[in-house]
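Quick review question:
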């Protein structure tokens, strides 16, 4: 969008505006859209140039043959490459993440694919944390090897020696080009220590002359309770479908990082046709205005629900919620990296899959569905759904057992959610006691 010098206002005098304030106006100039307070939906496939010289210049910039002017991505060309609605979302998401820029894609998996295809080549090795979201596991473990890209993993993101040993072992297969981690992990809420990971990557660079690119799936916490790019991670990846979209009515993804790091990702997005459509982009710009208060409210309710499950009178439960994981190393990393717990967590019961299904069937407010971060509360059995494509051996290894049940706490009153759980636990387990 054309910069009139004021539509990206971030300060009043010496006072720096908070992201929550800038969500209402940053990156949009009403005077370029008939004075409309809210951005319109720009339903167009292509954009007109005032002169052919302007068109030529725009294509040079888009193709990377010339640098874009300072503070600009270049002119609007074609909606597969860019359009005003997606640029507004990219500007505003970057404010929350604390990154220089963002690239928005048509889904979370589209964002991950753009990252991997931009930076991995045959013969490279990608090392992942474990567990990852089931779709990411499938992409890395089953899709990439078809293109001669090797894989490796580390099991404990809180153990610096384990991460270093894992990367060294992976390096025996080829050049370790990337480390992809999910922190907190879905569905166990396990963490990766970013400070330790950065030291490991520095060591690998000293030993090999190449520093692997680091990527974090920040969907569960971010961008409100954790910002990973300011903590030294090269790229933050998001499924915007979840908390950022926040209403279970859209599918989108994003990558945040530096302008230089995302240049190849943006080019890959355009080449593969992974850009997000204008209407969905507009919906996300609406959702960003309430993101902070939605996530704060849901997190408060999530803590209360987790406390009830921990104290329930029916059956012993292990709570995989950041506030309830009793590990001193975990808690030190959690307090250093995060400012809150988000509202998605799991609990583990010593029960069979059929008993887990009975418990879920006895719930009435919680909807049995995959995904998370919406305004409604959801319950999910990952072993039979989101992680069913992962081998049983790996699921057991990562703790994604038949007795693990994941909750995404929404915006209902927490007392009602607790009453629903109490009724379901009573119906499922009281008769057995």
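Suggested answer, residue by residue:
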């Amino acid at each position: 969008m054309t910069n009139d010098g004021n539509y990206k206002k971030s300060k009043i005098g010496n006072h720096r505006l908070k992201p929550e304030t800038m969500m209402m106006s940053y990156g949009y100039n009403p005077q370029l859209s008939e004075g409309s307070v809210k951005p319109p939906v720009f339903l167009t496939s292509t954009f007109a140039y005032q002169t052919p010289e302007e068109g030529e210049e725009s294509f040079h910039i888009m193709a990377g043959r010339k640098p874009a002017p300072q503070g600009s991505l270049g002119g609007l060309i074609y909606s597969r490459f860019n359009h005003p609605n997606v640029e507004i979302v990219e500007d505003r998401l970057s404010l929350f993440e604390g990154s220089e820029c963002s690239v928005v894609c048509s889904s979370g998996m589209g964002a991950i694919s753009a990252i991997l295809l931009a930076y991995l080549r045959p013969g490279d090795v990608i090392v992942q944390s474990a567990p990852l979201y089931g779709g990411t596991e499938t992409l890395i473990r089953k899709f990439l090897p078809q293109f001669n890209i090797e894989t490796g993993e580390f099991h404990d993101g809180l153990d610096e020696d384990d991460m270093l040993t894992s990367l060294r072992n992976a390096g025996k297969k080829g050049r370790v080009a990337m480390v992809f981690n999910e922190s907190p992990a879905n569905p166990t809420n396990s963490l990766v220590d970013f400070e330790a990971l950065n030291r490991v990557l520095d060591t690998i660079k000293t030993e090999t002359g190449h520093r692997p690119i680091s990527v974090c799936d920040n969907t569960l916490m971010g961008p409100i309770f954790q910002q990973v790019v300011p903590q030294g991670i090269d790229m933050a990846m998001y499924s915007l479908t979840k908390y950022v979209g926040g209403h279970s009515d859209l599918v989108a993804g994003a990558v945040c990082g530096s302008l230089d790091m995302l240049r190849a990702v943006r080019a890959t997005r355009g080449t593969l046709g992974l850009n997000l459509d204008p209407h969905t982009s507009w919906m996300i710009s609406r959702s960003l205005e309430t993101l902070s208060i939605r996530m704060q409210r849901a997190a408060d309710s999530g803590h209360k629900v987790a406390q009830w499950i921990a104290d329930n009178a029916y059956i012993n439960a292990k709570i995989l919620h950041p506030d309830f994981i009793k590990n001193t190393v975990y808690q030190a990393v959690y307090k250093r990296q995060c400012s809150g717990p988000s509202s998605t967590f799991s609990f583990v019961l010593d029960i069979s899959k059929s008993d887990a299904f009975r418990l879920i069937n006895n719930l009435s407010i919680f909807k049995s569905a995959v995904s998370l971060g919406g305004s409604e509360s959801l319950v999910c059995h990952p072993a039979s759904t989101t992680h069913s494509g992962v081998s049983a051996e790996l699921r057991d290894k990562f703790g994604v057992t038949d007795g693990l049940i994941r909750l995404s706490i929404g915006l209902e009153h927490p007392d009602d959610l607790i009453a629903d759980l109490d009724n379901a636990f009573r119906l499922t387990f009281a008769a057995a006691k």
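Why it works: Residues 84-285 form a domain with the Aspartate Aminotransferase; domain 2 fold (CATH 3.40.640.10). Residues 4 and 401 are 56 Å apart (CA to CA).
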